[in-house]
Amino acid sequence: MKDMDNIPAAMLGIGEAAKAAAAELAFASQERKYAALVGAAETVWARREAIIDANCLDMAYAEEKGLSKAMLDRLMLDESRIRSIVDGLRAVAEQKDPVGDVITQWDMPSGLNIRRVRTPLGVVGVIYESRPNVTADAGALCLKSGNAVILRGGSESFHSSAAIHECLVEGLRQAGLPEAAIQLVPTRDRAAVSEMLTMVGLIDVIVPRGGKGLVGLVQRDARVPVFAHLEGICHTYVGATADPAMALEIVLNAKTRRTGICGSMECLLLDWRFFTQHGSMIIDALLKAGVEVRGAGELQKIDGVTPATPEDFGKEFLDMICAAKLVDGVDEAIEHIRTYGSQHTDAIITEDQQAADHFFERLDSAILMHNASTQFADGGEFGMGAEIGIATGKMHARGPVGAEQLTSFKYLVEGKGAIRS
Fold first, then answer.
1. Which of 19, 245, 376, 385 has the greatest count of CB atoms below 10 A from its CB?
2. Residue 394 lies in a domain
3. Is the pLDDT of residue 208 over 80?
4. Domain range spanning residue 209?
5. 132-136, 319-323, 386-390: lowest mean pLDDT where?
6. In 356-368, which positions are buried (b, 16+ CB within 10 angstroms) versus exposed (e)?
7. Distance of CA 108 to CAs 104, 112, 114, 324, 408, Å?
């Protein structure tokens, strides 16, 4: 473990080692990267009891800090979740290697052949909170895409992340790749984050994965480019023609499957015509499931509903809490989402294809869904094996950021003695 008494000096050393490793990873063979990921997966499974023991230390620390049940759920690891980490590592290993992939090519009258090919970004800095599985996801995706990565996990997941990181390093060691390709900042001190944000020339892009406070800090203070992952203020609009049984199932899943993830539904918009025809069935089901429904207007008359305040709309609860409102048609739903959404994931439930097309056309969220739960906003569910985050900005990467999104491109130009007149 690095000496972190002098954090600026220690972070400089980490950055320089990462840059050197990135230069080697840029031309590492597909076979070696595959071997490193499979080796890491096998090591995680072999050390699962030690990882769970480390996680117990983190859970105790988090409980002392008074974290909510939803946040504790994000932090908790058991054998099932470790199996998911292993499966994610293997899935990334099996993906097509994006480095060197020819995006497009063409010939010019001058005799030049021009190819645009994928190339690694270089060094990626990932700053994340609570969820220790991000250590494996981010490490795997950066390695697959030929990037070195500097990981700075949340203080709550300190021990869990370290245990998982050791498994990733073991995979690198077995494959003969530089161990500095995946580094974990070994301190809870927030000064390390401040250093990362200013490491121009050593870190090529920062990916913040966490709450609004973390993302806001990174966007405000970073001198390094940022892939922004803002709040997951996800809406589900139940349209006038929605199938009631389908709507009920989707809404319950979107809110209650896992409340602490960014794809959890935070606001339910019910069409007036649906509500007039089918009543409070969806609200009642949410209440019965233990969700605190903060309703506006007519919804406040439903027994058990808590009156909503203006602050409840546009809020990421990450808990068994949901804002709810009646809207008059798809355009009013769209206007509400434009006003209060975070351009993360928004869904429409309807049997009217024209209404769904209108919803897709008029909204510009990173992910839009029709007749599906917002909980599917996940790189693994998109076939990416894992994700480093959901980018809500519009520059370079958007939506789930997988291995392919962690590449840039360069032009390879070949001629046969071509000269320009």
1. 385
2. no
3. yes
4. 7-227+401-414
5. 386-390
6. bebbeeebebbbb
7. 13, 5, 8, 57, 23
